[in-house]
Design brief:
By secondary structure, the chain is α+β, with helices and mostly antiparallel strands. The chain has helices at about 5, 15, 25-45, 80-85, 135-140, 150-160, 190-200, 210-220, 350-380, 380-400, 420-435, 455-475, 475-490, and strands spanning about 55-60, 65-70, 115-120, 125-135, 160-165, 175-180, 230-235, 240, 250, 260, 265-270, 275-285, 300-305, 305-310, 330-335. A hairpin with a 5-residue loop joins strand 9 and strand 10. The radius of gyration is 29 Å and the shape is elongated.
Length: about 500
């Protein structure tokens, strides 16, 4: 007997491949929809259906404690269905042309219901296949108190049932049914589900979003057709078609709550070794503060138009994390060598992805500088404007691009009745003057320094420079208060 014959894949592997695999219980919707989208693509390519006839339906039925996801793609042949649907991690899909390719996502619903059922009929066949997982029995078998040795195969054999029924020849579909879902579960909460779906699924832009048509057309002219699908959500008897939530106007700045319009859309292609690898679109706006709509804020990464990670994933490209929340846009990743990790919260660290990240860092640095400059211009009085011009001329001459300003986290509150743009401007100007004052010598004297007589001369000179900045940035009374507190508490 070889060593391989002695290896048993334990039953607890299933626990890791269901509840332990995904960051959020809502991810089960993404997993089933991406499989539906792949099946619809196949049906359209084979001219079984027209793209306009494609449909993915998601239904939440509170009365029967049931969730279902249905598509009208090709379905799975009866003779192959059992093998395909019971194989674990052995997908036959092509990674380069399909969103789901690991053969794991179909198990995503097991941890959230009593029964998970797959029902499918293949085009041209007179039968449908139904495979049912007894998820309740599975949980019992996975309890830690059970000591008997069972393999993954033994458990699957015990908790699954396969049935074949008659079906009409023209029917072709794949249905996922989750029965016995806990009514208090997050995945049954309609508003939360909808919020997740409109951010994560491969949807069209709203028809009322004027810029959506322009984005789609411009990106198509570069060579990429953004894939989207008619996806419907039915809850409490009402069905609606879902769209991405981008609009021509948005609200920004937590304090002032400005209503802003998108001025323009910029399209930026990224290439690696001469090959188009990603396309970014982002809205050109006046950068007045944090975008308040959580469904659209930040640059979102998508592959196959499915979200990778969340609104915070691209924070890693900004040294000032908060600036990502001031932006609107999407990065479509096209390179087949950029592979989403199993949790789909980022990509595997391939050479291609590392190169893309380096290019994104260059772009984000230029955007950060633009935001800071606009913030300074907007908030400055005549005296500040003169100082700003001096600072940015000096910065350009000496290549002084400061990227280490310590801003609050994006979810922190801004203290005081000041808009976020002014807050950023004051911090940016303060930081820049710290650099410039290190190159110059000023002779200003302040009475407040007489409060303390124990400060060495060298440190007093540093404090004088800091006070120079305070009096330049703030009104006299406020500057005096800050200066007094600073000197009193100086260590």
């Amino acid at each position: 007997m070889s060593k391989m014959d002695e290896i048993i894949i334990g039953k607890y592997t299933l626990e890791s491949l269901t509840n332990g695999m995904y960051a959020s219980p809502f991810d089960l919707y993404r997993e089933y929809v991406q499989n539906a989208a792949d099946s619809i693509d196949d049906a359209v390519n084979r001219e079984i259906i027209r793209k306009s006839d494609a449909k993915i339906s998601i239904e939440i039925d509170h009365e029967s404690h049931r969730i279902s996801i249905l598509d009208n793609g090709t379905g799975i042949e009866a003779e192959k269905a059992e093998k395909i649907l019971l194989d674990i991690g052995n997908s036959r899909k092509d990674r380069n042309s399909n969103r789901g390719f690991r053969g794991i996502g179909r198990l995503a619903g097991l941890g959230y219901c009593d029964r998970l059922r797959f029902v499918t009929s293949y085009v041209g066949e007179l039968k449908r296949t139904q495979i049912t997982f007894d998820a309740k029995l599975l949980r019992e078998k996975l309890r830690a108190t059970k000591t008997e040795e069972e393999s993954l195969f033994d458990v699957l054999n015990a908790v699954t049932e396969v049935n074949i029924f008659d079906e009409k020849e023209k029917k072709h579909y794949f249905l996922v049914e989750m029965e016995g879902v806990d009514e208090t579960s997050k995945i049954m909460m309609e508003s939360d589900v909808r919020d997740y779906l409109v951010q994560n699924l491969p949807l069209e832009y709203k028809p009322s979003f004027h810029w959506g048509k322009i984005i789609t057309k411009k990106i198509a002219s570069i060579g990429y057709e953004i894939p989207d699908y008619p996806i419907f959500l039915k809850c409490s008897g009402n069905e609606e078609r879902l769209y991405k939530c981008y609009a021509d106007t948005f609200v920004s700045d937590r304090v002032k709550r400005y209503v802003k319009a998108i001025d323009d859309i910029e399209i930026l292609p990224f290439s690696i070794n001469g090959k188009l690898s990603a396309i970014l679109w982002f809205a050109k706006v006046d950068y007045s503060g944090t975008v308040l709509d959580e469904q659209i804020k930040g640059i979102r990464i998508r592959q196959g138009n499915l979200l990778i990670g969340n609104k915070y994933t691209t924070n890693q490209y900004f040294k000032e994390d908060r600036f990502n929340g001031w932006l609107l846009g999407e990065l479509f990743v096209l390179d087949e060598n950029m592979i989403p990790n199993a949790r789909r919260d980022d990509f595997e660290e391939t050479l291609e992805y590392i190169e893309l990240k380096s290019q994104l860092l260059v772009w984000s640095a230029s955007i950060s500088k633009e935001i800071r400059k606009i913030s300074l211009d907007r908030s400055a009085n005549a005296e500040k404007k003169k100082a700003i011009d001096t600072v940015f001329v000096q910065e350009d001459e000496n290549n002084l691009l400061v990227e280490n300003i310590g801003f609050a986290n994006d979810d922190d509150e801004i203290i005081g009745e000041v808009d976020e743009s002014s807050y950023v401007a004051d911090n940016a100007l303060f930081d820049k003057f710290q650099i410039l004052l290190g190159q110059k010598s000023n002779n200003y004297k302040y009475k407040v320094l007489s409060i303390r007589d124990d400060i060495p001369h060298e440190q007093r000179r540093i404090l004088e420079k800091i006070l120079d900045i305070l009096y330049l940035i703030y009104p006299k009374r406020k500057a005096e208060t800050i200066a007094e507190d600073l000197i009193k508490n100086y260590q």
